[in-house]
Amino acid sequence: MLRSGPRAGTSRSAISGFDPGAGHASYRPMTENRITRETLPLDALRKAPEAHKYDHGHALVLCGGAGRTGAARLAARGALRVGAGLVTLGVPGAAQLEVAMQVTAIMLRRVDDGAGLTTLLEDGRLNALCLGPGLGPDRARALVPAALAAGRATVLDADALTAFSDTPKALFETLHEGCVLTPHMGEFSRLFPDLARRLREEPRSSVLRGAADRAGTTVLLKGRETIIAAPGGAVWIHGGAEGGDTPWLATAGTGDVLAGFIAGLLARGLAPAEAAATGTWLHARSAAEFGPGLVAEDLPETLPRVFRELGL
């Protein structure tokens, strides 16, 4: 009998501003934390010699249709490299052959619609989900409600956000505290148009707090300076002039890899804001380690060097 990994809804945390013994609502209000090497939860990232693959969780990345599978494959590779014990791609039937020809260590399961996803998620070992990269808006609208109803730790990115740009309230009403939203500025502006306008005049950290409180979950706004906010007021900041620029990340697919990093860390049991902050640091550090000429595929393959640098 296979051992189960971290259970959905449970988390461990070592990052500043989080009390693991009191649940997600325990973020200290109105605190700001710089994401640095010193804030990383290294103990949570290490793999014990006696650990089984299911001890490190099983991430499910939902994939788009034929000709649109690359983004999900990038996310899945990121989840695997960051240490998830297993990673599966949920693929529509029309794209199964295309994906099967491109992956090896990543598994495939057919997922055609919301009912199929609900059936697949009866397997409680699937403890973290990633939806959005290359998913397509119609498929996103079909799968996101089923994913959120399962109550698993979930990353929503790209099309999983754009699909609800006309009805953001409907999305917010179905989110739970185990989610992480990872919009870039365009996606943020469509989900939070009033808050996006305030970004011109107010501190970004203050605006992101409002977004996290409205959505009821962790929100990560990607940019030169990435800001992560959790409900209740805590904020984590990475990048900008103070954090070190990584201009090589301005290329297609890097955001998909970040979503995969975060999903993999959620599968390993990190709390949502902690997974977002840790994934952001690892993502940027991998880009800096590789340097000029970076393409998205290089990020997961550079991550082992970053782990060795951290003594993992």
Automatic annotation (TrEMBL):
Annotated binding of AMP, by residue: K222, G223, R224, E225, T226, G255
Annotated residues for binding of (6S)-NADPHX: A71, G134, H184, D256
Reaction catalysis annotation: (6S)-NADHX + ADP = AMP + phosphate + NADH + H(+); (6S)-NADPHX + ADP = AMP + phosphate + NADPH + H(+)
Coiled-coil boundaries: none
Gene Ontology terms for molecular function: ADP-dependent NAD(P)H-hydrate dehydratase activity; ATP binding; kinase activity; NAD(P)HX epimerase activity
Entry EC number(s): 4.2.1.136
Start and end residues of each YjeF C-terminal domain: 36-310
InterPro entries (alphabetical): Carbohydrate_kinase_pred_CS, CARKD, Ribokinase-like
Domain of life of the organism encoding this protein: Bacteria
Catalytic class of the enzyme: lyase
A Pfam family this chain is assigned to: Carb_kinase
Region (Disordered): 1-33
UniProt cofactor(s): Mg(2+)
A GO BP annotation: nicotinamide nucleotide metabolic process
Keywords: ATP-binding, Kinase, Lyase, NAD, NADP, Nucleotide-binding, Transferase
PANTHER family with a match to the protein in the record: ATP-DEPENDENT (S)-NAD(P)H-HYDRATE DEHYDRATASE, ATP-DEPENDENT (S)-NAD(P)H-HYDRATE DEHYDRATASE FAMILY MEMBER
Similarity comment text for this entry: Belongs to the NnrD/CARKD family.
Summary of subunit composition and partner proteins: Homotetramer.
Reported function: Catalyzes the dehydration of the S-form of NAD(P)HX at the expense of ADP, which is converted to AMP. Together with NAD(P)HX epimerase, which catalyzes the epimerization of the S- and R-forms, the enzyme allows the repair of both epimers of NAD(P)HX, a damaged form of NAD(P)H that is a result of enzymatic or heat-dependent hydration.
Protein's recorded name: ADP-dependent (S)-NAD(P)H-hydrate dehydratase
Species, as recorded: Roseivivax sediminis
